[in-house]
Each structure stands twice: as structure tokens, then as C-alpha cells.
DNA sequence: CTCCATAACTTGTAATGACATGTCACAATT
DNA sequence: AATTGTGACATGTCATTACAAGTTATGGAG
């Protein structure tokens, strides 16, 4: 018999991900203290009655998530807790903020259907004359305006989005949960600029104030460009935070 | 006999990483075209005479690197080539720029040894009164000033660094290659601000110009904070680019 | 012709076994 | 006392086997 009977075995989620979550829990609740050694692979094998492959898959995920690190020949250790744990993953604005306990909502400024034009067309890979939807939203954090988001999506999606509750729901989550489009990756450019008059008025800052401008092109899992955004954040109220890894490939 | 004889077998690098690099090469040189299906796992097993575990490890690396994506039940596909491929990894400035064919050098403005103080001490996890090294450099891209870098490192490292060729070599690469410190991850915050007078003079821009301010704390592989930097980039000449993934954990 | 079961693929998960390699402590040797 | 093995234990790599689960084409039943 290949598969051993196991208390966890009848569950629908894979064994390694269950173990990963159990270990994650123990790290977060302090059962395994930062910078302390985790149980060795062979101990975990005995503890969970699984094979080494399964244990290694769980630990590998945790390592890639930045919760533990391994030293060849010594063991696996809990990372020091990081303020930014997990950031550096593609998240919508509300998604990221609500995770941190902030209250957000979005005010829809305008929804227009217009020709893609050269720039947007190139990004979304549609013809210049093809129609796309432009969605402008003002985003509020704790009731203060913090950013202007200009979103371009193909017309078909834009028309569906127009009927959604865009004030409270994240576009990313609508696309994924309601439309079944699985988002894969995004390319971003971040730069600094000065607020011109119309932008300053919307963000309730002085003209010439510093603004963080983020251009983001989001792709579906299979590489289709889906959502092209220009985000203008108040420089005095927002920092973009991320955690990055030094690659080992 | 467990291990099959294999043409690749006597090499010092692991099999899966050799196969990964071969496949990466074939993707980059167009042998496998974007959005086309890769050879299936069983075909790769036959082609390289290795086990499925090895093939999957190679493909998994490529997937995490964003070069391919998999669809359960269908196959593995080549991703569309991305302008930003691989960015989102921790790189030094020169490291990133020279990869793109730009010429850079750094002018050392000052090197001081001083007390850490509250902020820097907290980041580098040393006592407030402990001595650290502050290194100020003006970085040039194609002979135009593009950023001011203020770097804080523990005194012991700062004293060694002071003797290095900081004009042309990347600090990250010195730390890794010469000092054997393996860098793991970094936390960054990016914000927009206005150039004050001294900064404007250094960057040769007008006072009040937009500046991208990046605060970056870099850790060694085992989580020790090692290098705390404030980077001030000319807003008109620099965009921070990265590619991020939507997490699947 | 339509519908549906099925076979033949694909990738995903998991167990078991083996050997390689890095680390460290302790004992034996010099 | 300093050095050098050597063994115990950690993670790293790899092979083999088995079954689960998603996808697609095909062929037979209605």
C-alpha cells in the first residue's frame, strides 16, 4: 500500500498544505519562536506520519513565503517576524489595507467607453480603435482621499464591472471570484511626480505636492493582459511597501 | 542501483538546475515559442534520462521565475516574454543597470563613523550609542546624476568597505563575493517627496522637484539586518520597476 | 445527430528508499 | 594542547512507484 492511513487523509486539501498551515500557525502563535530551530524533517515525519517529500514541500513553501530559512547540514529556523511579511505579492489596494485593519472605500468618479488609443492598446494588446472601458475612482482610507485610480479594461469586462459594487469591492477579487479569471502576475513602474491642478483638487492637496505614480499592468494566469492601471497616491499619506528576495536561481 | 548513469551526472551542479538552465536557454532562444506547450514531463524524462522528481523541480523553478506556467491536466506552457522578466529580485543599483546595458559609477560624497541613533539603531538592531558607518554616494547613470544613496552599516563592515573600490563596485556584490555574507531579503518602502535645497543641488534639479525616496533594509540569509539605505532618485529620470506574482499559498 | 462514457493523455500528490553533502561534537591521535 | 578523524544528524538530490484529478478526443448508445 502506497498511501498510509492518516488522520488528515480524508480531507480535500493536500496533505502538505495542511501541514504547511499548521506549521504557519505555530510560528505565528509563538509555539516556534523566532530564530529558534524548527523540528527536523525526521521529527515532523514522525509527528504527522507522512513522508519526507510531504514535509519538505510544506517547509519549502514556508521558506519561499519567508517564514523560515534553512541551513544545509544544520536545520530549519524560524525567521524573525517581519513587518511586511507577505507583501510583494500582487494585491488590490483594499485587499492589502483591510488585511492591516484599515477601512477603505472607493468613490466612482467616471466610467467611460472609448477607443483604446496607442498606449493603452499596446498594453492591453487590442487595436488602437477598439473600444475599452476607462474607470476612474477616488480611493479613501479612513475617510481621507488617498489615491486616484484610473483603470483600463477591455470593454466586455468593463461593462460587467460597471454593474458591480465598485465602492466596496476590490476589482481583483471580482475578477477572480465572480468572473473566474485567475490573475497571475503584474508589471509595475513606480515614479515620483508633482500633482497638477485637477489631481491636486481630487486628492485635496496643494498643487505641486509630491505624488507617487504607479503604472500597473496585470496579467491573467496564462499571460493575457487584463487590467492596466494608473494609480496616483498622495505622497504625504502613502508608502508603497514590499519585501523582496535575493534570488537563488 | 538507484542513480542511473547520465551524461550530466558527473557535474558538480545538481541535475535539476542543469536541466532548468537548458530549458531556460531554449525558451530564451526561441526553441520553445511563447504560449506554446513545453514538452510534457514524461517526454522530458525520456529526453534527459532523469526521474520525474528532477524534471518537476526544474519546471517548478522556471514557473516560480515566471518563464512558464502550468495548467493541471493540460500541460506546461511558455510565458509571453516580459520586459521586466526577473525583476522583483533584490539587486543593487549597478547590478540592475549593467544588466540592461547602462554605464554607471558612484561618487563617494562622504564616509563618516557616528552613533547609530534611534532610527538607524532600531533598523540595524544595534544600541543607540553604538558606532555605525554612514556612506553617502552620488550615483551616475550615463554621466548624469540620478540618485543620492545614504547607506548605514555596522562599523566593522563600514571600515572594510571604506577600503574598497566603491566607485565601480556594487556594495551587494562586495558583501556577497568578498565578505561571504549571503543576502536573503529586503524590506522596502517607496514614497514620493520634494527635493529640498541640498538634495536638489546634488541631483542637479530644481528645488521642489519630485523625488522618489526608497528606504531599504537588507537582511542576511539568516535574518540579520546588515544594510540600511535611503535612496533618493530623480523623479524625472528614474522609474522603479518590478514584476510581482499573485500568491498561490 | 446528440449525448455521454471512456480511454489516453496531462499535471498534482504522496510514499519509500538511497546516497550526497554540510555541520558539529567528541574521541583518538599526534 | 592542538589537530585530526569519525560518527551522528541535519538538509539536498534523485530514482521509482502509485494513485488522484483535470482535460480532451473518440467512439458507441440513444
Task: Output the keywords.
6-stranded antiparallel β-sheet; two-stranded antiparallel sheet; alpha+beta; DNA-binding; homodimer; disordered N terminus; 29% helix; 249 residues; 9 strands; elongated
Low-pLDDT stretches of chain A are 1-10, 83-87
The oligomeric state of the chains shown is homodimer
- Major sheet description of chain A: 6 strands, antiparallel
Largest interface: A-B, 54 and 54 residues
Total strand segments of chain A: 9
Helix content of chain A: 25-40%
Distance between the amino and carboxyl termini of chain A: 37 Å
Structural class of chain A: alpha+beta
Q: Proportion of β residues of chain A?
A: 25-35%
Overall 3D geometry of chain A? elongated
**Order of strands across the widest beta sheet of chain A?**
3-4-5-8-7-6
H/E series of chain A: HHHEEHEHEEHHEHEEE
Q: Please compute the radius of gyration of chain A using only Cα atoms.
A: 22 Å
Helix count of chain A, per DSSP?
8
Kindly state the mean pLDDT of chain A as a whole number? 84
